[in-house]
Amino acid sequence: MSQPPPWDQSQPPNQGPSSWPSPDPPPSWPSEAPNQGAQPSWPSGGPPPSWPSGEDPPPYPGPGYSYGYGPQPPRFRRRRPLRGVLIALGVLFVFGLAASAITSRHKGVSVTPFGSSTSGGPGAGHQAAPGKIGSYFDVEAASGSTYRVTLVKVIDPARGADQFSFPQSGKRFVGLVFRIKALTGSPQNEDANNDAVLVGGNGQAYSADFDNITGYTNFDNGTIHVAQGGTVTGSVTFQVPDGVKVSKVHWTALSGFGSTVQWNVSQT
Question: The CATH number of the domain where 185 resides is what?
């Protein structure tokens, strides 16, 4: 019976073949050093690691850092519905004031017709019928103040107050004298030069001329100043072509933006 060959006595027993063929030693594996700068990422779909108990987590490094979970969605500021409501209410309030002012400006006046200043009886509550020279109308302005306007006289022709006041060639001065009495409150923003209009027999309406005539003032350059219960008299001057007679006189309160009352001067 054959025997296995004996082991080489120069080779130690139980010595297997070398696992590293090169005579050089195997390279050392780099040890893991903490805080190398690379941020660990957690595989998607799994839960993040829990922080060891008893230790505080590091402070939040700032916006944009996600601890390896990918970019975070932007933060939205909390809406303040109350602030929006207050702003909307403020806008509506300002708009309401503006609309009210415009409405009151074009609302005009309420007119109660009266007879002549001697009889003084109130008429019907509808729009005033035309009056005659010497009659008056009580006019309520949008501000709530009420005043009485009377056409006292028509001076035709009228003479300028000084040598520098004269009409253009082919025209003459005509003066309308008004008396204003403040009934309740004081009339505000009333300008006689804007309120009064002269209508000629040719149907043409003439606006005020700013020259003064002898014997009367143009109120305060047209502006009416009178306290409650007081009375002020002034004139408004017009330049009317020669040959054109005065037919009507209009008075429109609120400096020409309110309702209109009328006096008939002639039928021609």
Answer: 2.60.40.1240
